[in-house]
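User: Hey, quick favor. My workstation is busy. Could you predict this chain's structure for me?
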Amino acid sequence: MSRVNGKETVKMTKILVADDYALFREITKRIIAETSDMIVAGEVREARDISDVIDNGDFDIMILDTVISGRSGFDILREVKTRRPFFPVLMLSSYFGDIYERSAFADRADGYVRKDKMSDELVSAIRVIMNGGKYFNHVSDDSLATTVH
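Assistant: No problem, here it is.
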């Protein structure tokens, strides 16, 4: 918290949502709207627009679908991490296999949440990541990572 004109203010975490399905963008916005310290500050529905939006926007974290407009979110993740290695990316997925979460970890995502768990885990995952942690449920090999959750 900081003070402006004698009043305490909360630093808002500015979130970019990259998902080609309007329904999941809306669900994400509704979940985030219930917080007092986060805001969806931008949306991307086409994979081709992500780099430009990240380069020209002011975001603290990106929520990235594992497939967006027919393109692999993992490919996008690798591109983002090459351009901006420390930019936090939370993968959001409708895939249930642990292999996808492990792939997200290997590609340097900062966290992974399944869409069927997003109402319970999304805000927690963002907070963990914004506090410097990682949010993975099934990456259990201690030689690879310290899991959070």
